[in-house]
Amino acid sequence: MIDDPVLVNDWHVVARSTDVAESAVVSARLLDEDLVLWRRNGEAMAWRDLCPHRGTRLSLGQVDERGLVCPYHGWTYDQTGTCVRIPSRPDTTPPARACTEVYLVRERYGLIWVSLGDPKQDIPPFREWDDPSFRHVLGGPYRIAAAGPRIIENFLDFTHFPFVHEGILGTRDSAEATDYEVEVGPDGITAREIYTWTPDPDGSGQAQMAKWLYRVLRPLTAYIELTPADSSSERYVMLFSVTPVSESESIGWMWNLMDYNHQMSDEDLLAYADEIVFQDIPIIESQRPELLPIDLQADVHVKPDAISIAYRRWLKELGLSTGTL
Amino acid sequence: MVSVTQPVCTDPVIANQWHAVCATDEVRCSVVNQTLLLDEKIGFTVTPEGEYMAWRLSAAVPPNQAVDPAQIHEPLPIKVEYGFLWVCLGDPPEHLFAMPEFDDPDRRNMNAGTLTVATSAPRAVENFLDLGHFPYVHEGLLGIEPFTEVVDYDVEVVDGEILASRCDFYVPKVGMNFDEPGMTRYRYRVPSPFCVMLYYDSALDPSREDIVGVWVQPMTAELVRAHNYMGVLDETSTDNDIKRYQLEIFAQDKPILENQYPKRLPLDPRAETPIRADKSGMAYRHLLSDLGVTYGVIPKRS
Known about the structure:
The complex is a heterodimer of chains A (325) and B (302). With 325 residues, chain A is an alpha+beta fold. Chain A is 16% helix and 34% strand. Chain A has 5 helices and 17 strands. In chain A, the strands form 3 sheets. A 7-stranded antiparallel beta sheet of chain A has the order 11-17-16-15-14-13-12, covered by helices on one side. Chain A has a 6-stranded antiparallel beta sheet with strand order 1-10-9-4-3-2, with no helix packed on it. The longest helix of chain A has 21 residues, at 266-286. Chain A is elongated. Chain A starts with a helix and ends in a 7-residue tail after the last helix. The model of chain A has no long low-confidence stretch (mean pLDDT 95). Chain B is α+β, with helices and mostly antiparallel strands and 302 residues long. Chain B has 2 domains: 12-87, N-terminal domain of TfIIb (Single Sheet), CATH 2.20.25; 101-298, Alpha-Beta Complex (Naphthalene 1,2-dioxygenase Alpha Subunit, Chain A, domain 1). In chain B, the strands form 4 sheets. In chain B, strands 7-13-12-11-10-9-8 form a 7-stranded antiparallel beta sheet, with helices on one face. In chain B, strands 1-6-5 form a 3-stranded antiparallel beta sheet, with no helix packed on it. The longest helix of chain B is centred in the last third of the chain and has 20 residues, at 239-258. Chain B is globular. The mean pLDDT of chain B is 95. The interface between A and B is medium-sized, with 23 and 24 residues.
């Protein structure tokens, strides 16, 4: 496991809830730790993917009426990770050491979140989730060969729109960025009143002056609210969370919630969001150094980078070491 | 002339062992056969007169390259025994372990196939010694629920070899010419650190035993080729059927072995969670520790 208390003691997405159906067994990786995910009686479990008997991956096993069964010798673990059955010694009580490393699991927003440590805060808020006027479309899992903070920084950056997302989120003749305010508080970073001329901000194909609000909720989770510049009646909000698989491999999950544009199909909205992310991925994967420099001397910054600067400063303050320089 | 080059492998116990590298019936004549042994590339061949040779290769050679006797400056010590070519990179013992049954006139001694497995040699040997996994990994062949119990059995070390006996287990199909499921009495033998053998009463003549041997060739500390030997009393099955049965079983072990963590065998008895059914595996870990083996293991902290 990567030894970074900030990330170890935080919540990370490891799968969609639907990926781990009743009695299913699935493997995942988080912070260099192999996990087995499984579900019984509706409850999702996330354990270290290792049978303590002979170092076998429990994710190759299956679920029976007693619990999760190791594929090698049939050792069976109940939902608390305690071995309740050793078939080669059916009449013996399993030794006390025969238990798995169990991690905290919560399911929210249709996703399975895991913490490998002792989380100091809840899963990031997403108020629009329960608002029935929004439709929900999940983008991802996006596998990205890059450090988590690089990916979040890209998500926060709007000055690349005219270049990386030309014709969708920006045009080169209106690349100049406006000034905006950045607030840093105990719950993260907020940047408001960012305006961009946007050829197609929501997949509808309607060009408009768009207004962006960014929030950094956790080191690897951020939020965008996108509305027309002159109204806030039409809202497209995104919750983007990056799973740090290892220091340089990540998985992005992006919820797209929209309360207008109802004639557009979910498939078309997903295709729209996917296209943008797939334009970002090669850029992010090309960045050097691979780890995000949080020493602000290291990169050249300009005024519109205020949110990036605040993000790097905040990570430094939190003491994040993984994925940063 | 014997090799004067020092082996790359810094574990003298393992470097000085005989290791099987190929079944003799698979050694191609007059061309360079190549493999990896203890992290070193080696070439071997057989002449039309039936003379075997092995030597270190400085680099991989193209397939089917003819043997150039001039390049063999330092032939490696070899043995041709039990249908396999054995090579030593260091200073070998005079004799390979004994298997007198090999000379039985009616025994079918077979090369039962070779499988590459991404694990350490000791993990592969320990898996072969293990009965408890039969109903799970070899379900329907070597074991079946609810017959999962491993009753107590005897383990002793005699002249440096591990011998496990009275290993009784309910087995659906012991071998090709076994038709009835039932309790089977196995004996196990670890005659050298990376060789392991299984004996059981023959279907044809219960006063004698069939033998299955696995000679584990350590290519690297975490990659092996497992050479399967079978010496059976069987007048009905074809060679192919016997070989296929053995390979089917080993192929079931492969994904289990390749997903074990760590790949190297931990020798500290507290490293994993042994139970009484693992007595032979624990004796094996103990023996490797006593011998001072470091290759393919995580040594006990002193």
